[in-house]
Design brief:
With about 425 residues, the chain is α/β, with parallel strands linked by helices. It is about 35% helix and about 15% strand. The strands form 3 sheets. A 7-stranded mixed sheet has the order 2-8-7-6-5-3-4, sandwiched between helices. Strands 1, 11, 12, 13, 14 and 15 form a 6-stranded mixed sheet that branches. The protein has a two-stranded antiparallel ribbon with strand order 9-10. Helix 2 packs antiparallel against helix 9, helix 3 packs across helix 9 and helix 10 runs parallel beside helix 14.
Length: about 425
């Protein structure tokens, strides 16, 4: 990979900052921006609705984008539903699957789930569905033995993240998926943090997969729900309205076939076009090359974290088991003296500088990182910490940027 050449494709990187928040949203290459502009300048019309040539061209571009994205993950184009993001995809799935679950059925998640793969399933508890959680080991890996013990015949659905947005853990979804299939449970994968970063193809054990365009060089407001066609056929739509029906009368509604059945109203055509252009860009670079580059960045980040006694970081210690991020907290340099002083006054003191304070300091140094709960608050409560700072990198980041970010941490004199 020619990183200098890649960075020239990202106009925003001409500004003088180090961007380490790609787990929240990635930057966009000129090729994606140009594709969106080209659509609006030359093809803008509503899709699936009119027979004039411009509308037909817009529809063709929209559906070819769907096919391109399907090919990227090894799916069929009629198994790709466009949504706003991973959150909407998983909510769509939760509401549609609700009709297939009965009181007493169980859903199995993990303790590391993002709120987007937690709240839609917890909602089902009000309908008599029990939600259980896979425990984690000391390094933030899912406990496979605990999973086996909880995968009973009552578990009708297993939904886990492929990569933790806090711990960086790359979960063995093949193991969990095969076990779920043997148990005749549906298997759902949150791919928001994996599809942008890892080589990936759909396998038989994956029933549903959700991911977001804005984390993989695409525009905001576009996401994907993959579902096996045989399953999508039997699910009711999440929303109802224009274009998702074959026929409507005051007495009867006949829905369109998937995926159109799940795309009520005017879709985000520009988002689909932009995401397709992002997929083209990722394919050109090569997902194996992206993974290798991010591994080298991660290996250096772990070395620097391990060498700094004031850094407390979370997740696997083996960089081969991690994706492109590291979450950590910073201990106070003056901790021992401060704690002894406060303890003499019977005051309990925490040992970590608040993550927001660290992120604000870094921001003043033009190092942009995320802080807080990262939309995974139950995980932080489980870890016993009040949030963290997160560095997350992508194909456009350099070793020098990682080193500069950690160097900046050493300048915090608290």
């Amino acid at each position: 990979m020619d990183i200098n050449s890649i960075r020239k494709d990202f106009p925003i990187l001409n500004r003088n900052f180090i961007y380490l928040d790609s787990a929240a949203t990635s930057q966009k290459p000129r090729q994606v921006i140009d594709a969106i502009r080209n659509y609006y300048e030359n093809y803008n019309a509503n899709v699936h609705r009119s027979i004039y040539s411009l509308a037909s061209e817009a529809t063709e571009i929209y559906e070819s984008s769907r096919k391109n994205i399907a090919d990227f993950i090894g799916a069929r184009d009629n198994e790709i539903i466009f949504t706003r993001n991973t959150t909407e995809a998983l909510n769509l799935l939760s509401y549609s699957l609700q009709s297939k679950l009965e009181k007493g059925d169980e859903v199995l998640l993990s303790r590391m789930e993002h709120h987007s793969n937690l709240l839609p399933w917890l909602r089902l508890e009000s309908h008599g569905i029990k939600v259980k959680f896979i425990e984690l080991d000391s390094e933030g890996n899912m406990d496979e033995e605990d999973f086996k013990s909880k995968l009973t015949k009552n578990v009708k659905l297993v939904s886990i993240t492929h990569v933790s947005n806090v711990l960086g853990t790359i979960n063995n979804i093949e193991f969990f998926g095969k076990m779920a299939k043997e148990n005749e449970s549906l298997f759902v994968v949150d791919g928001a943090q994996s599809i942008p970063h890892l080589p990936f193809k759909i396998n038989d054990y994956i029933d549903f997969l959700a991911f977001s365009g804005h984390k993989m060089l695409g525009p905001m407001g576009i996401g994907v729900l993959y579902g096996k066609y045989s399953l999508l056929e039997g699910l009711p739509p999440f929303m109802q309205g224009g274009e998702m029906v074959k026929s409507v009368s005051l007495e009867r509604v006949i829905y369109e076939d998937p995926p159109v059945k799940f795309e009520a109203g005017t879709p985000n055509v520009e988002g689909a076009v932009g995401l397709s252009a992002a997929v083209d860009y990722l394919k050109k670079i090569g997902m194996d090359n992206i993974r290798k580059h991010e591994y080298e960045l991660g290996k250096r980040a772990l070395e620097l974290a391990e060498s700094n006694k004031l850094i407390e970081y979370y997740g696997p210690r083996d960089s081969r088991k991690r994706s492109g991020l590291i979450s950590f907290n910073l201990k106070s340099k003056k901790y021992d003296r401060i704690v002894k002083d406060l303890q003499s006054k019977s005051i309990i003191a925490g040992k970590l500088i608040h993550s927001h304070d660290v992120a604000e300091f870094l921001g003043d140094k033009s190092v942009f990182a995320r802080s807080g709960y990262h939309c995974a608050e139950p995980l932080f409560k489980y870890l016993g910490i009040n949030g963290s700072v997160r560095f997350s990198w992508y194909l456009y980041n350099t070793i020098q940027e990682i080193e500069k970010a950690f160097e900046s941490l050493g300048e915090i004199n608290v």
